[in-house]
Each structure stands twice: as structure tokens, then as C-alpha cells.
């Protein structure tokens, strides 16, 4: 199944080798909603809280329905928690709010379930049906330390850290780029940041088309 078939707009964008652009200054984040990923929260809290006034989200608690409904109207949704945020974000809300880009860093957030003779379904396809241009998710379960290294590298390579005055406090074993590559290229480069790059590093995939930050 092609991710492009789920979003008619992506068919047009796919013809443009340069991809499309989104505004990184409009972002919604959910960081450690269950309160049990303390290392992850410590690594990214300063970064998300240091963003512009148009960055909204929650840290260390579950988001309310109103927060999710409003937040998914942002250009970028970043999730650091378990799974693909299914416990907090209803499928109907995902399909209705048209979140442009979603980064889902939880275990198996990008895995699709086979449905017999029908197309495979999953959280990623819900975002694509809702109009997302790109969705990053993991095909299988991953360790929090390694996926945090991956996420920190994606933030730097894609250029999202340039919008925040706060730093990502995740120790990296690789040199990070200066950003402004496509999200797909950022994901490819970030695989090398993982200690287990053929296990954790191979888990993240991108559904959709190349997307750049403005």
C-alpha cells in the first residue's frame, strides 16, 4: 500500500522533487505523558519549553481532549511517550484535525496491522488519511535511550532546534548537522546516532513525502 494513495495532496507533492515546507514555529508536543520516562523528559523538556509562544503542549501529564483537538491543528506534532499516542489521541480527532507532520517516537508507533484482503491500517495511516504530509513512526518496539538519541539527532538534522532557545540534553556519539534537510533525510542520518543502528536505528520509517522546515 502506498502512503501517497491515502493523501491526494501528496500525489501532487510527490511530483515535486523538492518536497514541501512546513512552519516549525507552530508545534504541539506531548512529552512523557505517563510520567515514567524521566530520562526522556530530562533530555527534551528544556528544548520544548524553550520554543516560541506558538509552541504548545504538556510535559509529565496526559493531555486533555481540548489540548489535543487544538494541538493537532499545528504544523508539527512531536510525541515522546509509549506507542503512537493512541491512549490520548482518538482516531477520529487525528483524521479531522489535519496535522501536517507527526513525529511519533513511541514503540511500534509506525507499525501497520494487516486486515485480510483490505489495506493494512495503523496510527500512521490515520494521520495520512487526515491530510498529514509526513509521519515518522517505529515499526517495532525500541529502547528509550537509543530512540532518544535518534530523536535528538532528527531534531538537529531537520532544523527544529533552531526554533527553540532550549537545548536537547541527550548525549550524542555522532556529529550533528546544521539542519534544513528534508525530514526523510534527517531520519536516514539519525539512524547512525543509535548504539544499535541495525535494531533501533532500523525501526523508524517515514510515511509520506519529503518535508522541509521553512
What percent strand? Answer: 15-25%
Please give the order of strands in the largest beta sheet.
Answer: 3-2-4-5-8-9
What is the number of helical segments per DSSP (H or I, 4+ residues)? Answer: 7
- Secondary structure class reads alpha/beta
Number of strands: 10
Main sheet characteristics: 6 strands, mixed
Oligomer: single chain
Order of helices and strands: HEEHEHEHEEEHEHHEE
Mean pLDDT over the residues: 90
Give the radius of gyration. Answer: 16 Å
Distance between the termini: 30 Å
* Low-pLDDT sequence parts: none
Q: Tell me, what's the shape?
A: globular
* Helix content bin: 25-40%
Description:
- The chain is an alpha/beta fold and 214 residues long.
- Helices cover 29% and strands 20% of the residues.
- It contains seven helices and ten strands.
- The strands form three sheets. A six-stranded mixed β-sheet has the order 3-2-4-5-8-9, sandwiched between helices.
- β4 (76-80), α4 (91-97) and β5 (101-104) form a beta-alpha-beta unit.
- The longest helix has 15 residues, at 144-158.
- It starts with 7 loop residues before the first helix and ends with a strand.
- The model has no long low-confidence stretch (mean pLDDT 90).
